[in-house]
Amino acid sequence: MSTLLEVSGVSVTFDGFRAINNLSIQIAEPELRAVIGPNGAGKTTFMDIVTGKTKPDEGRVVFGDRGDSLLGMSESQIAQAGIGRKFQKPTVFEAQTVRENIAMALKNKRGPFDVLLRRKTENREDRIRGISDEIGLTDALDQQSGSLSHGQKQWLEIGMLLAQDPRLLLVDEPAAGMTPAEREHTTDLLVRAAKTRAVVVVEHDMEFVRRLNCKVTVLHEGSVLAEGSLDHVTKNKDVVDVYLGR
Amino acid sequence: MKNTFIARNPSVLWFLAGLAIFTILVTVMSEATGLGLISTSFLKTLGKTLCLCLVAIAMDVVWGYCGILSLGHFAFFGIGGYAIGMWLMYARTEGIVLTSLEANALPPTVTEITDAVGGQIFGVVGSSEFPMIWAFSHSLPLQLLAVVLVPGLLALVFGWLAFRSRVTGVYLSILTQAMTLALSLYFFQNDTGLRGNNGLSGLQNIPGLEDQSQAVVSLWFFWASAIALALGYVLFAYVVSGKFGSVIRAIRDNEARVRFLGYHVEHYKLFVFTLTAMVAGVAGALYYPQAGIINPAEIAPIASIYLAVWVAIGGRGRLYGAVIGAALVSLLSSWFTGGSAPDINLGFYVIKWTDWWLVLLGLSFVLVTLFFPKGIGGIFDALAKKTPPDREGDFGPDKGAWRNEEGEPS
Lengths: 246, 410
Fold this sequence. Notes:
The complex is a heterodimer of chains A (246) and B (410).
Chain A (H helix, E strand, L loop, with lengths): L1 E13 L2 E13 L1 E6 L6 H8 L7 E6 L4 E2 L5 H7 L1 E4 L11 H8 L6 H6 L4 H13 L15 H15 L3 E5 L7 H14 L4 E5 L3 H7 L2 E6 L2 E6 L1 H6 L1 H8 L2
Parallel strand pairs in A: 3-8, 3-9, 6-7, 7-8
Antiparallel strand pairs in A: 1-2, 1-4, 4-5, 9-10
Chain B lengths: L1 H7 L1 H20 L10 H26 L7 H29 L8 H13 L17 H25 L4 H20 L11 E2 L12 H27 L1 H12 L1 H6 L4 H27 L1 E2 L6 H14 L4 H19 L6 E2 L4 E2 L1 H19 L6 H6 L27
Antiparallel strand pairs in B: 1-2, 3-4
């Protein structure tokens, strides 16, 4: 296990409000990590910083074997470097079919000319099939993704993440709005994905986190409050005070 | 590949067939080939309409597919017209000057010819010097290159600056409109060297084709316009189908999400903006020889707004919609403003369509936008019984899926 992502001493202020305060987190590869914390603890902002949506005021964010800094890179460059993200609200392209959504995410050259002149290949169809099987949407490949159920959209988005074949997956509340059966399936997907890459899951739902059965980082007011197994952090007095005790 | 492309886009075949039938019908009925059911001036109107359809599909790709409401594409159209107009004017004037100088005892020198041509062209703005901008006007190939390259380069530089700063939505529209306004003001100046508000004229006389009647030349231009429209349609159908089309529609719907998939959104926008600007230039270069005259008023922002109106009425996001919109509205427009439409006498007031046409157009634009956002092209969806998924609020058809009654998923 080697360190894949290293966030150190990062702070962000929005209009005087300190959303992230001297935050340091290390993620190894492969690893499954859950990030929990009350509302406003900075979970989503942490993802925004890593994916380049928000620029921090200070601190370092380095990624990969060569330790490239992510701070000078645009969102699309970071995505190409191997970081995929799933949003809290499922954001798939509803006016397009499931197949088109997955095809767009497939790891390939991303330049306009590459995309314009590329031919359809058997290989591509196979990869789309493989992913749709994994997320259970093979029957829906030619459906408009806007007609999918909420849970299916969540899966489609996870499928798009897998299609990108990133080294680091950032997953924001993957189980929101899912039925219990769908949740179970999602847990399986994430655990399987984390065998070969780093997966960071932001989640509210403790039951879901328990099922992931992995190392947990508790955020509070923009910095790390506790880290360790779920049992370990739930015994931590600070954690009980700010989060679980309420 | 060709087969699958057509198979995946059956509308391309329908469109090409329709265009071919239309072209043959018009040819048979034209004055040049005999029947004479269509006057040469109406033939020119039809040819011009085809050019407008071409620029409309370019607009549809940039706006309807990629989501960039450009109010500058008619300026690119005008630049294409100016580029070809400069050669037309130079070459024709040179021909006239050479004929008149033949009477002299001594053969004219090169300087004499240049001065005489310059005097003829720039006399109206009180000058006889050739400005720098006319440096290539003697060469047809170079001016033809300019038809494509000048709009392309302008779009590339402008687009790069605008997209790089992530200007989007209505702000981008305002920016493109400012560009258009600046361009038209620049063309209006006499100092620019494009004959100021006089513009370029006599463009219907094609050098080298003096022996042919206008009826024949107009027919040739009509054919050229039809071929250009067909090629443009196939080109854009190819661009918007397949994965490239998928990416640009995704950019239209959710730009930020496309970035997180690793696509450089700016490059895609720049590609589409520049390609469509180049096609607009070609359309303009075919339009103005049929119109006979071009002046800076053609480039004014209002023209680009009309372009957006055509596409909106025809139906955004489908190529044939843009063609229908442009053809219908521009033909109706020339019917109403040409005085052919009968006035309506209300007793207390007479509606003269020459005055009221713009009001009618504006009203129909508002009505289409409010009640038929898909435009005329939406009728085809209704015929094909294609209804888009409507999942606003509810979360899915599955029994187990989150129901609206349960509130927001937490």
